[in-house]
Amino acid sequence: MFNRDTWSEIIEALTTNWFRTILTAFGVLWGIFILVILLAAGKGLENGVKQGFGGMATNSMFMWAQTPSQPYKGLPKGRRYNFKISDVEALKQQVPGLRFVSPRNQLGGFGGANNVVRGLKTGAFNVYGDYPEVMQQEPMDITSGRFISYSDINENRKIAIIGEGVVKEMYEPGEEVIGTYLKINGVNFMVIGTYKKKGNNGNSEEAQKQIYVPFTAFSQAFNMGETVGWMAITANDDNSITELKKGVFEVIKARHSIHPDDERAIGNFDLYEEFSKINGLFIALKAVAYFVGILVLLSGIIGISNIMLIVVKERTNEIGVRRALGATPWAIRGQILLESIFLTIISGMAGIALATGIIALINLQLQGVDTSEMMFANPSVDLGVVFIALSILIISGLIAGLIPAQNAIKIKPVDALRTE
């Protein structure tokens, strides 16, 4: 079947009516083009949204104290309580599977009063008291100097790492930052590093206006004692923080005399759970892309099948002669199927090439553009998608040629030779 004469016959059959062949092929080309473009667009949206997380450890949750809604052990509901630094060590020891438990305290906030002074300049910034582990949970690029270390924690050093947004507001262009002092709520802290963040779900500008200081120095300077405002907790890679948080809550409730069934006493934001929902959304979008693309492709396949029926009808005499000369039904069937598959693959590959060119042009336009606020980045399709597309094309070609091929072998040689 795969010889020169066979392929010459296929080319001649498809080029007899160029216009008809091109119109037929366009349906398949357009279908595979739509499929690849939809998948690439979905991937670009996924990349943009994930980029918005700014590289944060997504297997994490944030936890803070609220007011108990039930009385317990003689303590009333509605009372106030705070996490303590001792809770951190208790969680590390009693809840297996936790990678980081980072206590945090905070001053200021978006829209808050001015809390930072340098010379004649003032500003309102988020100030966090943190441990070095927060660098693993909330990655940032240190642009100069360094981040908090455990020696800073142990020695209560009043040092600060500031964002580029703080630098712009509190310093003159080109002014040396490292080694200078900022007064935070009346307490001097020496700047030892600067950082830059990306993403943060559309809040990248606000993310640059944060100040990090050692947790112990923060507690000492602002009279926090053993109080912990909230915690950032990250699970190991082989554990889910969503599954571990029940054990975390049990430890905290036991240590602070909170009713085991009280669901309102501890506030939390499960980043892993939210991230899983987003992943589920993109899986659904990919399924929709395949569904729509295959439906459009199916219309092209129907067109090819119809054209092949017409071709078989036009070649009735030829088929009759071949049957009379001893051609087997499989030889006739194989010829029709091969023509159908060939036309489908050629038109489909043209669609893939066109879609790839469009995607390349989009990526070229996005080069050098800050996509952190666009929620769209690097649209692409991987090699697996190309193989899937090729598999779809081959199967589609077989389906498109199957009915015409069956019709072809049903033609009796005598009847075919009589047809004008």
From TrEMBL:
Coiled coil: none annotated. The keyword Cell membrane applies. It comes from the Bacteria. Residues 21-246 form the MacB-like periplasmic core domain. Keywords: Cell membrane, Membrane, Transmembrane, Transmembrane helix. Pfam families: FtsX, MacB_PCD. The chain crosses the membrane at residues 21-41, 287-312, 341-363, 383-403. Residues 291-413 form the ABC3 transporter permease C-terminal domain. GO terms for molecular function: transmembrane transporter activity. It is found in: Cell membrane. GO terms for cellular component: plasma membrane. InterPro entries: ABC3_permease_C, MacB_PCD, Macrolide_Exporter_MacB. The keyword Electron transport does not apply. It is a multi-pass membrane protein. Belongs to the ABC-4 integral membrane protein family. This is ABC transporter permease.
